[in-house]
Design goal:
Largest sheet of chain C: none
Order of helices and strands of chain C: HHHHHHHHHHHHH
CATH class of chain C: Mainly Alpha
Number of strands of chain B: 12
Largest sheet of chain B: 8 strands, mixed
Largest interface: A-B, 46 and 48 residues
Radius of gyration of chain C: 25 Å
Number of strands of chain C: 0
Strand order of the largest sheet of chain B: 6-7-8-3-9-10-12-11
Structural class of chain C: mainly alpha
Number of domains of chain B: 2
Shape of chain C: elongated
Shape of chain B: globular
Chains: A alpha/beta, B alpha/beta, C mainly alpha
Distance between the termini of chain C: 30 Å
CATH superfamily of the largest domain in chain B: P-loop containing nucleotide triphosphate hydrolases
Radius of gyration of chain B: 21 Å
Oligomer: heterotrimer
Structural class of chain B: alpha/beta
Helix content of chain C: over 70%
Distance between the termini of chain B: 33 Å
Number of helices of chain B: 12
CATH architecture of the largest domain in chain B: 3-Layer(aba) Sandwich
Strand content of chain C: under 5%
Order of helices and strands of chain B: EEEHEEHEHHHHHEHEHEEHHHEE
CATH topology of chain C: MetI-like fold
Number of helices of chain C: 13
């Protein structure tokens, strides 16, 4: 990976706060800090994985990048422009290059539309194709994702979950995007189908030079497909490193616990896990200092008061912890 | 011990739909001993959940158990009257579900719901039921049980709700616990907590457990024995160590190979081609043959039986 | 070893074999499968036929009085006359002919009032749900205001001010019924708006108009139709009630409600004058509701597949 080249996408100080009223008659306003100051870059052709548990804000990040949500603060630089400040027509152009694959293939396709219209919709909006040209292009896209001409006039419900996900991928590919955000793209699929889709994503990346932001809670899938991985906890990145470093020598105790919590499909490897105590805190009232201190086995008094900054540990690894773990 | 705790023989549960009969569970047999954890694995639609509902006699219309035998402590559950079955449910056999939010009634407090179990099955009064509820919450690792007992379900997190469900299920010291995807809706770190809890309770009370899951990781972590289901049938049945070390059915090996690994990095995953067949149009011969890399002409014609591959290891394949 | 693509294609081919029939035959197969739908369609077809060809079917002039033949019983009763199969009313007018002509008013009022209500309520519901914010607040508070006033009172006031006529009746019923549409459509739009396919469409740069008309609108049609059928039925009943109170269509135009009103005084002695228009109203309302249920099913793409298996 060439880190010296300019990144394809750069996120700076990204925040998304949701205001809520404290109590029915109170005018005092609180904020759910869904995303609380993110900085990261994405290089051309790589896959950045974003993992974390529910409420960590990983899905919000995807929607912010695609401008489905408006950021409260921060910048999203793509092709020399901050996409969060673009006007309507510029944004439309930027969207050619930023696409998304959704989690649930049952809800991400309009049940009333035929496959030809679903996959062809972006072309209808952006290109001046004749009907015949558009159909040809749609067929080409369907072939690319392993579907066939027969499927053109079908409705989504006539397909299995895996096939629907393929349709969603074909739609995302229609405009030759640079970046595709995969938001839990394989989480709802059965094991055997999940591997088909992961292979397809990998194949498309190799053939088309795509860049992925792969958001998921399932660590094995993220590990399989990502070059670098960001771990999020309650709206913040607690660690970001290339895949092998992250798995071999995590610096943040949360990363380590997360890795340890994944059940390994081998009964001979039953092991003593790091079992984190307690629940995920409420994102509307995150703990003071380091958000993780309430569950952290290594927490010290300073963790309750002072929020740790992201520190670099060489090789592109960064982690936000006052007491980073030593390499084993 | 004369009997196994639970012996299911040739269970058949069919759903009669407008378009034909769907044999969701098609001749399933397995057994569970006291204190044993049996995992049933398979993908969506393989019939694993319907199997568990059949044992509980909770299959809803248009589904119906049409054949087989379910011996629980030597007694055929399918021959019990409704009333006797109700007495058994929640008392000797209990169940926890995937979604802890929808399995708890949102308008009642935890005390109400957990206490109800004691009031029904042990005929305790309100005060005793409350005491027992608190003790039970404590046992499943809920901090501050005296306070939590007065909470409504929405005041609890997903993991806490699942703990409450487990408390309810274990309230009467059941001999058999059926857990249908108990951790699928939970976050990884919470899943680890719940699995640990289930393991310790299983050890402490010698409860037989049927764990239904799609996650081979959870299976490897929890199970003593494993039953692999595909398209309404058992395709493999073995001890957990034997199964993972020596998988015989191509579907089992396919599932294992298609998992992304935590400990090694592959460029491409092996995957099982195609998708699960339409239950109304089951392939002739072996149900798995259209997706099977080892399939031969015989597989399209002859239906394989579940046969002993070696002691304690059954496989349904012509090519073992 | 086969590739996933090949096996999937193979599956599709087998599925296709089952699906080889035109939409018209699908229509009839689905209709036949639904007995209720068949009954509804037959009833409504009959009523529309009768209304359109009233002049040719009706045995008598519906407004021609004949005092010598007043209050004749139906033909199968003693003193009945086969010229007047359902008997005559207090002015000697043929009940059957009046019911035949009365269907015109019922259908016109039912259909146009609902079209008006659906257009206003559907549009406001869409706008309210999609844009939200202050637009939503204004529309929904208006809806609340309308709901707070008893609709019968509102109808009576409007009719009193504007004077009873067919046009005012339609207007009145439209104005009092749109709130149902607005509320239900708004709720549906709110849930549709959060669906991933709407987000997906937004990520490919679709305009608001495109999202509303190609993604949201088709997915709220089934609710729209359910509300509409109930509303047509309700409008027909409202028309009858208002005509019964003398505020509906005015004589000499015949309406079922008016007939009920006329027959009221003779219920004890000549029950047929009020009973037959009552039965006509009931059958029509049932027919519309049956038909509506079935249309909703046909429009659902999932049902299409089921019907073709």
């Amino acid at each position: 990976m060439a880190l010296d080249t300019a990144p394809l996408l750069e996120v700076k100080g990204l925040k998304k706060y949701y205001p809520f009223k404290k109590g029915m008659f109170s005018s005092e306003v609180g904020y759910v800090r869904a995303v609380d100051g993110l900085d990261f870059t994405v290089q051309q052709g790589e896959t950045l994985g974003i993992v974390g548990e529910s409420g960590c804000g990983k899905s919000t990040v995807g929607q912010l990048i695609l401008q489905l949500l408006e950021p409260t603060e921060g910048e999203i630089w793509f092709q020399g422009k901050d996409v969060s400040t673009l006007g309507k027509s510029e944004l439309k152009q930027a969207r050619r290059n930023l696409q998304m694959i959704f989690q649930d293939p049952y809800f991400s396709l309009n049940p009333r539309m035929r496959v030809e219209d679903i996959v062809g919709e972006p072309l209808k909006i952006f290109e001046r194709y004749s009907k015949k040209e558009r159909r040809e292009k749609v067929v080409e896209l369907l072939r690319l994702v392993g579907l066939d001409t027969h499927h053109l006039s079908r409705h989504p419900h006539e397909f299995s979950g895996g096939q629907r996900q393929r349709i969603g991928i074909a739609r995302a590919l229609a405009l030759n995007p640079k970046i595709i955000v995969c938001d839990e793209a394989v989480s709802a699929l059965d094991v055997s189908i999940q591997s088909q889709i992961l292979n397809l994503l990998r194949k498309l990346q190799n053939e088309l030079g795509l860049t992925y932001i792969f958001i998921a809670h399932g660590l094995p899938a993220v590990k399989h497909i990502s070059d670098r991985i960001a771990v999020m906890y309650l709206g913040r990145i607690v660690e970001l490193a290339d895949r092998d470093t992250l798995f071999a020598s995590p610096k943040h105790p949360y990363t380590k616990a997360l890795l340890s919590a994944v059940p390994i499909p081998d009964p001979l490897l039953r092991k003593e896990r790091i079992i984190l105590q307690g629940d995920l805190p409420n994102p509307a009232a995150p703990p003071s200092g380091c958000h993780f201190h309430t569950r952290c086995p290594y927490a010290q008094p300073v963790c309750e008061t002072k929020s740790p900054e992201l520190m670099a540990y060489g090789g592109g690894q960064v982690a936000a912890c006052h007491f980073p773990l030593e390499a084993e | 011990m004369q009997h196994k705790l639970l012996e299911v023989t040739n269970l058949q549960t069919h759903f009669k739909t407008e378009d034909g009969v769907v044999p969701s569970v098609n001749g399933v047999s397995f057994s569970v001993s006291r204190g044993e954890t049996l995992a049933i694995v398979g993908e969506s639609g393989c019939g694993k959940s319907v199997t568990s509902l059949s044992i509980m006699r909770l299959v809803a219309s248009p589904g119906e158990v049409v054949g087989g035998e379910i011996l629980f402590e030597g007694q055929d559950l399918l021959k019990l009257g409704k009333k006797e079955m109700r007495k058994l449910r929640g008392n000797k056999i209990s169940m926890i579900f995937q979604e802890p939010m929808s399995s708890l009634n949102p308008v009642f407090t935890i005390e109400n719901q957990l206490g109800e179990v004691f009031r029904i099955h042990e005929r305790l009064d309100k005060k005793q039921a409350r005491q027992k509820s608190i003790a039970m919450l404590e046992r499943v690792g809920i901090p501050n049980p005296e306070r939590v007992v007065g909470y409504f379900p929405h005041q609890l997190s997903g993991g806490m709700r699942q703990r409450v469900m487990i408390a309810m299920a274990l309230a009467c010291n059941p001999a058999l616990l059926i857990a249908d995807e108990p951790t699928t809706a939970l976050d990884v770190t919470i899943q680890a907590q719940i699995l640990e809890l289930m393991k310790s309770l299983n050890k402490a009370y010698q409860t037989g457990v049927i764990l239904i899951t799609h996650d081979l990781g959870v299976v490897a972590e929890m199970a003593d024995r494993v039953v692999v289901m595909y398209a309404g049938e058992v395709v493999e049945d073995a001890s957990v160590f034997d199964l993972f070390a020596n998988p015989q059915h191509p579907y089992t090996t396919g599932l294992m190979k298609s998992l992304p690994k935590m400990d090694e990095q592959l460029e491409e995953l092996d995957s099982i081609t195609g998708s699960v067949p339409n239950p109304l149009e089951m392939p002739k011969g072996c149900a798995f043959h259209p997706r099977c890399p080892k399939a031969t002409v015989e597989c399209t014609q002859i239906k394989p039986q579940l046969e002993e591959y070696r002691a304690n290891h059954l496989v349904r394949c012509l090519h073992t | 070893m086969t590739t996933p693509i090949q096996t999937e294609t193979a599956q599709i081919v087998t599925v296709r074999k089952r699906k080889k029939s035109g939409s018209l035959s699908r229509f009839f197969r689905l209709l036949w499968k639904s007995k209720v739908g068949t009954i509804g369609l037959l009833i409504m077809a009959a009523i529309v036929f009768v209304a359109v060809f009233a002049g040719a079917i009706a045995p008598h002039d519906p407004v021609k009085t004949n005092v010598s033949k007043r209050l004749l019983p139906p033909m199968w009763l003693e003193k009945g006359n086969s010229d007047y199969p359902l008997g005559t009313d207090n002015l000697g007018r043929d009940v059957l002919s009046r019911i035949i002509y009365g269907s015109q008013v019922s259908l016109i009022v039912g259909i146009f009032a609902v079209m008006l209500a659906g257009a206003i309520g559907g549009l406001l519901g869409l706008v309210s749900g999609y844009y939200g914010g202050w637009i939503d607040a204004i529309i929904m508070r208006t809806v609340d205001a309308f709901l707070a006033i008893p609709s019968m009172l509102l109808m009576l006031i409007i009719l009193f001010v504007m004077g009873p006529s067919l046009g005012t009746l339609i207007f009145t019923l439209g104005i009092t019924n749109w709130v149902k549409y607005a509320r239900i459509i708004r709720g549906e739009v709110l849930s549709m708006k959060e669906r991933d396919f709407v987000k997906a469409s937004r990520t490919v740069g679709a305009s608001d108009a495109r999202i509303i008309f190609t993604h949201i609108l088709p997915n709220v049609t089934s609710s729209f139709i359910v509300v509409s059928t109930i509303s047509v039925a309700a409008a027909i009943i409202s028309e009858a009630s208002l005509s019964f109170l003398g505020l509906g269509v005015q004589p000499p135009t015949v309406s079922w409600g008016g007939m009920l009103s006329d027959g009221r005084q003779y219920l004890a002695t000549s029950w047929w004058v009020a009973t037959f228009p009552g039965i006509a109203i009931t059958i029509t309302v049932l027919g519309i509701i049956f038909l509506g249920d079935w249309i909703r099913d046909v429009l659902d793409p999932k049902m299409k597949a089921k019907g073709s298996k």
